[in-house]
Amino acid sequence: MYSFLLTLHSLVRWFVLAGLLFAIYRSYRGWLLKRPFTKLDEQVRWIIATIAHVQLVFGLWLYFISPIVSYFLHNFKDAVHNRQIRFFGMEHITMMLIAIVLITIGSAKAKRKVTDMEKFKTMAIWFTIALLVILSSIPWSFSPLISRPLIRPF
Fold this sequence. Notes:
Layout: H1 2-32, H2 39-65, H3 67-74, H4 76-79, H5 83-112, H6 116-137
Helix pairs in contact: 1-2, 1-6, 2-5, 3-5, 5-6
């Protein structure tokens, strides 16, 4: 179960990133070019929030069954000094929860805005900040600090 969920979580990350990049593109495009907020823009806003929340569920589920996190929680005094264990036990989950909160707030605020420009601007700002948080907290394969494969096979 752990391996399957880890692979699924790794795969869904790409949907979150692609969806967020598309939502940010649409937001800045609409905001800067003064475009109307279309049904597609509304769907993009809703879909990225939904995909992010699905990823959150997978991540939390993974967090509670992970042997790395279990070790971190049961051996906190020693584990907190080990970069890789601390990253998955504390840093990754904290930053990703912050990113999900940013996406949720951005989506909710944009939904309630009256004008199209306000909707686009709100999405652009909140989603961009969330993307930066996410990019800083993914265990990239090229990272010198924490390295995991870009794609995990099933």
